[in-house]
Amino acid sequence: MAPKYHPTPLSGGDRKALAKELGKARAMASMLATQSAEMRAKGEAMIQQADRLLCESWNERMWSDGEPIHPSPTIDQAVNGGFPWLEIRCGRCKTPSDVDLAAMKHPPTTFVHDLASRLRCRKCAKAGRRPSATLLQLTWQPRHPRTEP
Ligand SMILES: [Zn+2]
């Protein structure tokens, strides 16, 4: 795009004043953009902190009482908060396993507690059973060796 055209004022004083105003406006534009970027970075860092606290709060509740499992963080809150893994335990055979939340096909706005009825134990699935999973903890890395499918 061509730069915006400002008609050149006839008087030298006005030309100087225009140049000064243009310089000020350009400096202001870049200063405001910098401030906006800084503020956004701060905001994102705070959201990340809030997400982490939400995950930690949910973990404490799961550890202390195991319920209610809702409200819970959403998948993207968990991932953003540094807890991209969900530790579950099969309701039937009690085998623990880890779910990679970032790799889930569900929309990132899905609540973690909504996954409970959708996660299946591989072992039991092979035996033709579909028991629901008990949700244990959100973790920053998997805790159990991957069981071969
Ligand atoms: Zn099982």
Low-confidence stretches: none
Secondary structure category: alpha+beta
> What value does the average pLDDT take?
92
**Count of discrete domains:** 1
Number of strands: 3
Distance between the termini: 56 Å
- If helices are DSSP runs of H or I spanning 4 or more residues, what is the number of helices? 3
Radius of gyration: 27 Å
Strand numbers in spatial order across the main sheet = 2-1-3
% residues in beta strands: 5-15%
The helicity comes to: 40-55%
**Biggest sheet layout:** 3 strands, antiparallel
Form type? rod-shaped
Secondary-structure element sequence? HHEEHE
Bound molecules: zinc ion
Give a concise summary.
The protein has 149 residues and is an alpha+beta fold. Helices cover 43% and strands 12% of the residues. It contains 3 helices and 3 strands; from the N terminus they run ααββαβ.
